[in-house]
Amino acid sequence: METPDRSVEPADGAGPAGAAGAAEPAASSRASGPPDAADPADPADRTGNAGQDLATVASALNSGAIHLLRSLAAVDRQSGLPRARLSALSVLVFGGSRTLGELAAAEGVAGPTMTRTVDGLIAEHLAERLPHPTDGRAVVIAATAAGETLMRAAQRRRIDVLVDALAGLPLDQQLASAAAGPLLERLAAVVRGQPPSPNER
Fold first, then answer.
1. What are phi and psi for residue 107, nearest 5 degrees?
2. Quick one: 120 exposed, middle or buried, by C-beta within 10 A (0-12, 13-18, 19+)?
3. pLDDT tens, 146-170?
4. Which pLDDT tens digit goes with each residue over 112-148?
């Protein structure tokens, strides 16, 4: 059975489906992930350079990200694909073709699980197996034209919903949201193990 709780993100900098953006995907939080609130007694609580309680900041970010992705899940369902397939397709459309192992690593799942996901995409003519460009013994998984059309439509639905939501916010919150996107991308990179550059510290 496919992993059904994979959030979808575009990998083109929007991060849907991530998905309706990336990949990267990923991009991805699981609805059954960490609790929305941090334990106030956690000894790991630290204070940031500006004097904020970083555990409080982290808890708010965690909660907001989970709630936003859960809200967008209803939009993603309009694609007609299970989340696992939509997320994998997002990686292929926004991140490019890759081997099965690379796709499994990008999605954080085991090879057999990704094989079933890819088989489902191929059965729906949304992805295909192609010869590897440099290794004659290997194949790569690529999105088909139909797969890219479906993913671009899923991305557009997400963006339209977010545009409508932003339009209902006061101007100062719209401006803060504009700055939040790049900051969230940077935070995700640090979580993945990419340290901030010296001028970001």
1. -95, -5
2. middle
3. 999 999 999 999 999 999 999 999 9
4. 999 999 999 999 999 999 999 888 888 999 999 999 9
Structure tokens given for 162 = 């977010």
Q: How many CB atoms sit inside 10 A of residue 8's CB? A: 37
User: What pTM did the predictor assign?
Assistant: 0.71
> Are residues 14 and 8 in contact, defined by beta-carbon separation less than 8 angstroms?
no
Q: What angle do CA 65, 184, 49 make, to 5 degrees?
A: 110
Place of tokens 């991308």: 185
Residue type, 172: D
Residue 182 burial by CB count (10 A; 0-12/13-18/19+): exposed, middle or buried? Answer: exposed
Placement of tokens 């460009």 in the chain: 133
Three-state secondary structure call for residue 22: coil
Contact at 8 Å (CB) between 155 and 122?
no
Which residue has tokens 């989340």?
A: 83
Closest CA to 133 of 96, 106, 86: 96
* Cα–Cα dist 96/89, whole Å: 10
**What is the tens place of the pLDDT at every residue in 18-73?**
455 543 343 333 334 444 444 544 545 566 665 578 899 999 999 999 999 999 99
